[in-house]
Amino acid sequence: MTALRLPRTIRFDPSDTLVFERAAEPGEWAVPGSFLFWDQVVPNLVGKARAAFRAGFVGVRSLGFSTLVVIVEASEAERDEAIEDLARHIHERLGAPDFEAARAAAREEIEVAVSLCGPEIGTLIAMHRTWEEGEIRESFRTLRRRAPGEDRLHGGLRAFRLIEADDEEQPEEHVDLLGLQSGEAGR
Q1: Which domain holds residue 132?
Q2: Where is this region: Disordered (predicted)?
Q3: Per-residue pLDDT at 38
Q4: Does some domain include residue 14?
Q5: Is 187 contained in some domain?
Q6: pTM over 0.90
Q7: Into how many domains does the chain fold?
Q8: 132 in a domain, yes or no?
């Protein structure tokens, strides 16, 4: 039997605190969180709200956003605690009719999060959320550590590699990191 796994928010640098209105705390249990956008006019989102929509996992304790989550082992008690934390928000802040309905919705969100945790422990997951024909669509990418010497071109020095894309139809996004460093990107 496979051990229970859950995604947990992770922060490598302070960028989430700058990109999102409210950043999740590192180490929170996380869900994709598209339910937070159901009553939004998604095409009209701008700035930090748009960034949260496009790439934010939701921490169940804070309802803050995180760009990345990491797959970790979790106990049944930790999963149950995550369900209760999320259920409180769904009931108190999002208007569920009663706590049992909120708990059922939270349980469903946690099960979606669990379903993302098939790759090995320590794998990072990034999300890309879009609005297409009136519906929210999510795609996920997983990153895992390279084995030493695996990247001969760069001497095995890259920390992660892209290993999976659930949706081949998504357009590729490119960032000119060298240009950003030298201040030439976007010129």
Answers
A1: 5-182
A2: 168-187
A3: 87
A4: yes
A5: no
A6: no
A7: 1
A8: yes
